Description:
The protein is an alpha+beta fold. The protein is 34% helix and 20% strand. It has a single domain, classed as 2-Layer Sandwich (Alpha-Beta Plaits). A hairpin with a 3-residue loop joins β2 and β3. α2 runs antiparallel to α3. It is globular. The termini are far apart.
Amino acid sequence: MKGNSSALRKGRFSEAGRIYLVTFVTCQRNAIFDDFYLGRLLVDVIRKESQFTDTLAFVVMPDHVHWLVQLKFKSLSDTVKTVKSVSSRKIQKETGAQERVWQKGFHDHAIRRDENLAGVARYIVMNPVRAELVKSVREYSLWDAVWV
Length: 148
């Protein structure tokens, strides 16, 4: 199959009230968010999207995002699409670049009721440590979790 993410999503649906772990990646894995200011810009977009979701945890890595989110009434596809399109416009305006910011599509995992949410959140926010970007999560500022 030729990387057609919409075909992969066909027949899938999202539920209001459900919690999802979502991952989306920058185009060609460009490390856009090595630039702290652009990372904070994305954090602001994620936080503003919280009017449609409950953000439980997230981390902005140099070339991708992990987001633990509970849907309110907007679909998961629409939620991610909004974050990606708003952040793309803001990043392009800030940098003057016209290249695509995000790869098409995203990966999601619906959290089962028996999964430990705090454990999933810990896994998310520890990404910079596992990637050896920092020695402690306290040294990395592009993350948040409701448990902290």
